[in-house]
Every structure is written in structure tokens, then in C-alpha cells.
Amino acid sequence: MKKKPLILIKYGGNAMLSERLKQSVVQNIWELCSKGYRVVLVHGGGPFIRKMLELVEIESEFIEGHRKTTPEALRYIEMALKGEVNGSLVGLLNEAGMKAVGLSGKDGRMVLARKRYHYSTENGQEIQHDLGQVGDVEQVDTTLLNILLENDYLPVVTCIASDDAGNDYNINADMFAGSLAGALQASHYLVLTDVDGLLRDIGDPSSLIRKLKLEELEPLFGSVIKGGMIPKLESCELALRQGARSARIINGTRPESILEAVNKDKSTGTEICL
Known about the structure:
The chain has 9 helices and 14 strands. It has an 8-stranded mixed β-sheet, sandwiched between helices. Strand 6 and strand 7 form a beta hairpin. Helix 3 crosses helix 4 and helix 6 runs parallel beside helix 8. The model has no long low-confidence stretch (mean pLDDT 94).
């Protein structure tokens, strides 16, 4: 029997902070499931992490924009991501009639992490910065996800994973999602953000780039692709190179764009293709 198409959604931005938008995203996911799509939802939760660390009075140290994460901070980050964000999403999806299961990369050794270092150049010398418990995806084992999907469960995965020695790491949610989309060979990888897609001019909504080939991405980094868009487009590139069939940046503040993104007759956001 032919498997139903798989959609991996990277969920974040304002669509995660507004209750109204959250409910609307859930409704759109329900509609995808009712049309026979298999769905995996991956999320981070920057604002929830900030709030949690402020609450427990742990000050964040940033190295060139990268948050350094101590083992103590990671305990609270995991609480925010798994306890608050993941639990709330699973509850909303189940309430809407789906069978959602909350997971992190640690479950079933789904994601193997490796420690991440940040490198900078000072006076011609390359300097290695230790970011603490910040990691990258080393390897993905899709066994658990496939078992759940085959039995009509909807996995909701957050971006914490362990290395071989059992050390835990927080991983950038975009890169985590891109790695899973690639490993699962997703038919559609959808990245929700707060704008309509990649704009040539951030101040001009009509400058939306509808379609880009992978080789067209590289020259745009630093000029058109800046700030928070960098990891989003890097994750699309990663997903496509590792096996996903299509990748698209869409506006999560317009949750109907989730359905539009898989409709061949409609065009929404920025599509990245091989």
C-alpha cells in the first residue's frame, strides 16, 4: 500500500505566542490529517526559554549572538520546551481529535547530538568558543517516528538531544527540523515564520521571492538572507540535500498558508527546490 505523503512542519514565531493563531494552526493540521497526510511537528521556543531563565534568575551569556548554555540553564530550557511548549501543543492537537505524542530527540535515541563550537577570527587567528550545552545533529534514527506515523499518531518533537555519552544538548530548532525532514524524506518541509517568505527588500512585501534553486541560495547569504532567515534557509538546504522532496518558507501568522503550501494549484511563501 502506498504511504500517504509526509509533511514536516517547523513551528515557531508569533504563531506560537498567540492563542488565536495557535488554534488556527492546529485546525489546519487537523485538515491535513483528515486529507490523509502524515504530519510531524517540530518546535523550539525561544520566548518561553527567555521567560523561564528570567524566572529562575539565570543570566544568559551571548557569544557573538549565540546563547551559551550551562548544564543548569539546560535543565530549565528542557523544562520550558518539554513541559510547557510541547505539553501545550500535544494537548491542543489531542483536543482537536488527533493522536499527538510529545517527544524530544532523546526519545528512542531518535537524534544523536554532538557538541557545537562557535568559531571567530581575531587578528587573523581562528578562535574556538565553547557554547556549553549547545549541540548539532550528528545522526537521526527515524524508527520511532515511523512506528508512530504508521499507527496514525502525530509526533510533536522538541529540539533537545543527547550524545553517545549521555550529555544533553539544546539544538537550533530550524536545523533540528531540517535534519528530521531530510531523514524522513518528507514530501513537504514547511518552515513557519512571521513574514510571507524570503523578501529581496524586507520593507517591501511585493519583493517576495517565489522560487529559488539550491544553487541560487549561496550568493544571497549576508545580503538578502540575513538574521533569523539564515538558519531557516540553511535548514531548507540541509533538508533537501538529505532527502526531503520540497522545502518552503511560509507565513505562520496566516495559518491557512499551511494548506496552501501543499495545494498544487496555489502558491504561497518561498519554495526552495533542487
